[in-house]
Amino acid sequence: MRIALIGLEGSGKTTVFNAVAENPVELPPGPPQKETHIQVVKIRDERLEACRDIFQPKKFTPAGIEVWDAPGLPPGSSEADRERRMRLLSALRDADAYVLVLRDFKSDRYPYERAEPDLDADLARLADEMLTSDYVICENRVEKLRGNIERKSRTVDQDKLELAVMEKCLARFEEGRDLRDLELDEADEKRIKGYQFFTRKPAFALVNGPNAVPEGLGADCAIQLRAGTSMDAQIDAELNAMDPEDRPEFMEEFGIEAPAAERFVRDVYRAVGLLAFFTVGEDEVRAWTIHEGDTAVIAAGKIHTDLAKGFVRAEVFPHEDLLEAGSMRDLKAKGGIRLEHKDYVVKDGDIVHIRSAL
Ligand SMILES: Nc1nc2c(ncn2[C@@H]2O[C@H](COP(=O)(O)OP(=O)(O)OP(=O)(O)O)[C@@H](O)[C@H]2O)c(=O)[nH]1
Ligand SMILES: [Mg+2]
Predict the structure, then answer these.
(1) Domains of the chain
(2) Which of 94, 272, 294, 305 lies at 20 to 30 Å from 201 by C-alpha?
(3) Dihedral in degrees, nearest 10, Cα atoms 251, 255, 261, 262
């Protein structure tokens, strides 16, 4: 799962990154930031830790979310700024979900166009950039496909099918609407997948500053946000840089209920609709991330494509049952392990063992 932070220049993306990353990076002295920082934020999960205590495995592997901190989008209307925005956005297309970082603080260390924060204006701006970028890609492709069909190219049959779905997308963009709730069947979904449209993927707003998310934020923005959350990133980044033993006092003083990394991961899971299942044993206790509604065979494919190909059955039980029984032997003796088919919908916190013929 790759999550990209998107924001205007100086909205605090790198500070948010530093609040959640294990190894904070140096804040660049001024704009523009040149490179993208990437780190995996490991997910602390007490349920998984309890399983580790039972197995004492050689290897312990929590799930992780890859976070990208890209340079900010320059706000200007010059050709150079426009080109830079396009380049930056196209580098972010491969992410699986987006966190739109909105500035809710003032800072004189940064040359903002406007000193006062304006959440709605910044959000509208970002949404517009994402939507326009999708629009341009879609429009170019539609033109190309129409040309192919007119010329009766060799791929004309596939081109017609692709054109039909791309025209549906184009109609949305022409109305200034996103693709998030556009209903497509599996085949059409595949046809547009390669374009990596921003507005087909989950996005949520992160208000960076001391205030909570204002009611109605994003209600009339062009892209549908899944949720909003807020973080006072500067304080959280300070906390994250501290020695672990100094953290509790700081958290108490600033009323922070959990470290930013934990809150961030929780918010991402909720906004994107993710859940974790576990695999356990003496060799390794490990968490895996899948989407809500994913079946046992999809879960198997996460572990290894061969496990999905050769899928026979999944042995499944809720982790609570194992913790209660205290050992696999006792759980088995109680008949606590179910055998499930390919289409079993995996639940959050399930422990899964795949039986495979390969
Ligand atoms: N008061 C306050 N200042 C912040 C906060 N987050 C960031 N800043 C300040 O805002 C300035 C820009 O922060 P960055 O984290 O570098 O912003 P950015 O979005 O990564 O900037 P670019 O990568 O250049 O687009 C720095 O001076 C930060 O110290 C915050 O939550 N509160
Ligand atoms: Mg930055």
Answers:
(1) 293-356 (3.10.20.30)
(2) 305
(3) 110
